[in-house]
Every structure is written in C-alpha cells, then in structure tokens.
Design goal:
The protein has 83 residues and is an alpha+beta fold. It has helices at residues 10-14, 17-30, 68-80, and strands at 3-7, 38-42, 53-57, 61-64.
Length: 83
C-alpha cells in the first residue's frame, strides 16, 4: 500500500501542513483512494525551508511547498500507479 508521509514538524505546520493534510485526506476520499493509500503525519523531513513537505513511498517521490496544484499532481500520480 502506498504511504504518504506529510511532515508535521513545527516549520511545516506553521506553513500550512495541518490544512494540507485535511485537504489531502478529503481529496483522497473523493478520488476513492482513502482506503488504498495510507496518509501518515511524519516528523521533520529535514527540508524545513521548503515546507510543507510530503514524501510518497514506495518510490521516494517528494513534494515541497505544498499547494493545491501539488495535491492535484499527487492524486494524478497515485492514480497512474494503479493504487
């Protein structure tokens, strides 16, 4: 099962990671992926100046400075991987 690690370190939280997580989980639900993709609040991913940060495993694909556009790209990526 693919796992999305969304950084919840203090810098990413101050840059909107909490809202990004809620938006991501809602988008996963709308796309029918919520039960097939695990969304995990992670600790610091050591890219504080670029946050909020997200990592997808397997594969190691990263997104930095999450925006709604990034979340759309992430959903497209997950759908293309036949989750």
């Amino acid at each position: 099962m693919p796992r999305i690690y969304l950084c919840m370190g203090p810098h990413c939280r101050s840059r909107g990671a909490t809202d990004a997580r809620a938006t991501l989980e809602h988008a996963l639900w709308q796309a029918g992926l919520l039960g097939r993709v695990e969304c995990i609040a992670s600790g610091c991913q050591d890219r504080c100046a670029l946050g909020p940060n997200l990592l997808v495993q397997p594969g190691g694909r990263r997104w930095h400075g999450l925006t709604p556009q990034h979340l759309r790209e992430l959903l497209a990526f997950l759908k293309d991987t036949d989750v």
